[in-house]
Amino acid sequence: MSNSADCVSIHLQDITEAENFYTNVMKFTLVNRSETHLEYHTGTYRLCIDQELNTRPPLPNFAVQDISIVKSGLVANGCVILRESHNSLNFRDTFGIHYAVVQK
Question: Which pTM was predicted?
């Protein structure tokens, strides 16, 4: 692994309710919005919220140079790849904790 990224992701069902809460209650600054995604500047890190049917706990993100090398190492050490795209993946470690890895 390289460094932690400056982002923590969460997945919620109601993006409108999430926008109301994080904008009006938490007073975070909204910096990016689509119909299924919100991104907030919170001070030290970005909070990325994606709309999904299944609510999930916060997902720490890590930035890496080569995602294919990292993926091979994770799988070889018992981690489970949960989701994958061309430059990112989500995985569950051997303790049951979920993380995201993003190629820089």
Answer: 0.70
